[in-house]
């Protein structure tokens, strides 16, 4: 207390001197203060403080220089979405077969006051398998209601690549824009995820027969529990290896209007499509289970060396199919490719492209996904 008083006194003295307006006087007084009035005891104290100050500074410097080991408790969650989002973990299940773990999270977007639910593979926190829109109970918001009980909006598509996969069904006439004759239509989807693609289609076009094969029983469990995935007589989820399903279809002579390959493995460079499907024998089999005007739609997700990896997949696909239509997403790393078992005349390719673009426009408008579907370019690639 005494100490502080004295400092205060010094300060007021210098201020007073300043008020006099003479710099010389101020300097003189300062000298007096420092050298005149400061006793030996004071000098000792000053030295003591200086010593501790330097010691503390030194220790602080050593502390800063220590090896930086930062344990990030929130690994994988901090990057999930922008800062205007809150992420709540709902459930994680691990596959007893592959020991891959899948997590379900709810993402609250405070900016738009909407809630989305997503599934991701642990280790791929930045690449959601599925994102669906939740419907709040009447008069409720995320602040007044537990989002876990909210319903799923099956007619909403939130990711560009799912919108692209749906649109690709129509661009090449694998499916007609009109629903007449849907009873005759049949799709085989390999890879369920949260079922956004097939549940959307099933809701919009309930008469199309859709079979979904999913390798991981835990994914089916999570999809049924948290993503509103339901089976009925026109839409069925089967726990099975996609490779087996393709072979069985061939043996049974089943023919599909489209085979949708949305299966991923856990390679970091390019998780989708799962490499096991890119063998010559499997692609030959897939081609053989397509109807004459059918299409194979592939979700490609190149995360590293994107150009090279994409080209690699395209080359393999084009060695079995004469034509592929490629759509590069604008915000997502995904590239959606639709490959046809028949060839297109190469002399009027530009006309064909315009026709495909028109159909893409019409289909995405009719289905209400035009706002989501945003791609950089649509390219027709010939063998
Ligand atoms: C579901 O999503 C669609 C498309 O975004 C939207 O038009 C519709 O209003 C949503 N339904 C509900 C109940 O929120």
UniProtKB/TrEMBL annotation:
GO molecular-function term, one example from the UniProt record: methyltransferase activity
Keyword terms, alphabetized: Membrane, Methyltransferase, Transferase, Transmembrane, Transmembrane helix
Regions crossing the membrane: 46-64
Gene Ontology biological process: methylation
One Pfam short name: Spermine_synth
Family per similarity comment: Belongs to the methyltransferase superfamily.
Protein name as catalogued: Uncharacterized protein
Annotated organism of origin: Panagrolaimus davidi
